[in-house]
Design a protein that fits this description.
Helix content is 41%, strand content 13%. It is of the alpha/beta class. The chain has a seven-stranded parallel beta sheet with strand order 3-2-1-4-5-6-7, with helices on both faces. Helix 1 packs parallel to helix 2, helix 1 crosses helix 7 and helix 3 runs parallel beside helix 4. The longest helix has 29 residues. The N and C termini lie far apart (42 Å). The protein binds beta-D-glucopyranose (BGC). The site of beta-D-glucopyranose has 9 residues, from loops.
């Protein structure tokens, strides 16, 4: 386990989709660095409670609670922010991470599968970021905990830049995240709000189990990864903590790719 640190002491962070995979690792890492954490979930409440419980045991100065909310629903997102502020006083860091895939060849993709992915992956991140911005601006600076008024860290994907056949809904949602994040930066940076994205490559979670659960699949996947290992959720957790902390204070409007080099066109290593 990572060593506890203190970089986020006194701050409160909402992580959406935090009861599994990347979200769980991000919430855990944020808690280890001293922040209060809201573990958002939509299904499997027992797992969310367990993640929150583990975070509060390991966190030397903060606490964690689980809050249920469908991030694609405006009223539910607003309610989650209200519950968080009632409980912890404010929100300093917002990490809209909840996301899903509903894959199909484009010509067979249903409107429902298109809409669901856009609603959760893109609209969900818009709704969380909007509530975070409102809270940051109404609360004002807290120089004792951070040099920024607030931080938003969008969870994107390498597919914000790598086209993905058979996954047009997912790729379009992540392509949308780039302009959402950069436009927020442009609009609110002067208020000392930082908005960045993390773009994970292939990270070993349930969402891409087919790509790693056999030796053969893993070997094929590694052809896309110059670093020749699949990522683990903790790779994303450590990037998120750093982006949330003052160590990255001058980083704004940027996407950090955490992908073992996947975005460096590995197909060209011996070709072209
Ligand atoms: C997707 C995974 C995929 C990875 C690399 C992620 O955004 O959710 O299913 O393995 O990108 O292609």
């Amino acid at each position: 386990m990572q060593k506890p640190n203190d970089r986020l002491r006194g701050q409160t962070c909402i992580v959406t989709g935090a009861n599994s995979g990347i979200g769980e690792a991000v919430a855990t890492a944020i808690g280890l660095d001293g922040a209060n954490v809201v573990v958002n979930y939509i299904s499997n409440p027992e797992k969310a409670e367990e993640v929150a419980h583990q975070i509060s045991i390991n966190n030397k100065c903060g606490d964690a609670i689980a809050i249920k909310c469908d991030v694609s629903k405006e009223d539910q997102v607003q309610h989650m922010f209200k519950q968080t502020i009632d409980h912890f006083g404010t929100v300093d860091i917002c990490i809209p991470n909840a996301g899903l895939q509903r894959d199909a060849p484009m010509h067979e993709m249903s409107i429902e599968d298109w809409q669901l992915v856009i609603d959760v992956n893109l609209t969900g991140q818009f709704l969380c970021a909007r509530e975070a911005l409102k809270e940051f601006m109404s609360r004002g600076m807290r120089p004792e905990v951070s040099s920024s008024l607030g931080k938003i860290i969008h969870m994107s994907s390498v597919h914000q830049i790598i086209p993905w056949a058979g996954h047009v809904n997912y790729a379009a949602s992540k392509g949308g995240i780039v302009m959402l994040m950069e436009s927020i930066c442009q609009e609110y940076a002067s208020k000392k709000i930082r908005c960045n994205s993390i773009a994970p490559g292939a990270i070993k979670t349930n969402i891409n189990q087919d790509a790693w659960d056999t030796e053969e699949a893993l070997q094929k996947l590694n052809e896309l990864i110059p670093y020749k290992r699949i990522g683990i959720p903790e790779d994303i957790g450590s990037a998120a903590v750093w982006l949330a902390s003052d160590e990255s204070e001058y980083i704004n409007g940027t996407t950090i790719y955490v992908d073992g080099g996947m975005t460096c066109y590995p197909g060209f290593t011996t070709n072209g």
